[in-house]
Design goal:
This protein is of the alpha+beta class. Strands 1, 2, 3, 4, 5, 6, 7, 8 and 9 form a nine-stranded mixed sheet that branches. Strand 2 and strand 3 form a beta hairpin. It is globular.
Length: 186
Amino acid sequence: MKVCFKNFLNLTDEEIKLVHTERNKSVIRKKMYNQNEIPFESHMEWISGLKNRSDCKYFLVFLDEDPVGVVDFIDITKNSCEFGFYLFESYLRSGYGIILEKYSIDYIFENLGLELLNIAVLESNKNVYKNHMKYFGFVKDDKLDLIRDANIFLGFSLSKNQWVSLDKTILNKCLSFFDIQEVNWE
């Protein structure tokens, strides 16, 4: 399997429409900071504005030729960032999230050279934050908890040192089911 992370700045019009459609699906929106539907015009303005920003990066993720989800890095500083991702509706519960997360963490620590990674997960999304801790070594960080529009998001963090020293036996066993041959960031 080939994994490709395609920068939003390089998306085709068709890919931009796909991201917009998937992001606006109720099943996806209800897990986000912003749970409102986003008008297409606003979506286009936002994507256009990304070229002037160094504090965030967004990627459409392909497994082989199939677009399966989105990865984002926001609030990028010289030492840290916040990471998030979502799978498209037809790939929920596919196990593909483990691929997106593992290679995103590698990218953050190896390519961006950051030392700390933060995530925020909707409190009711228990399976997701349990997986962050179990497979990836994230630890609960109460300082990162926040409330947005009456929704509670729990904060977690992972340092580069924690990631490097993490026993990845279970994670690697899970990844072996996907037979990943190549990972590219475009």
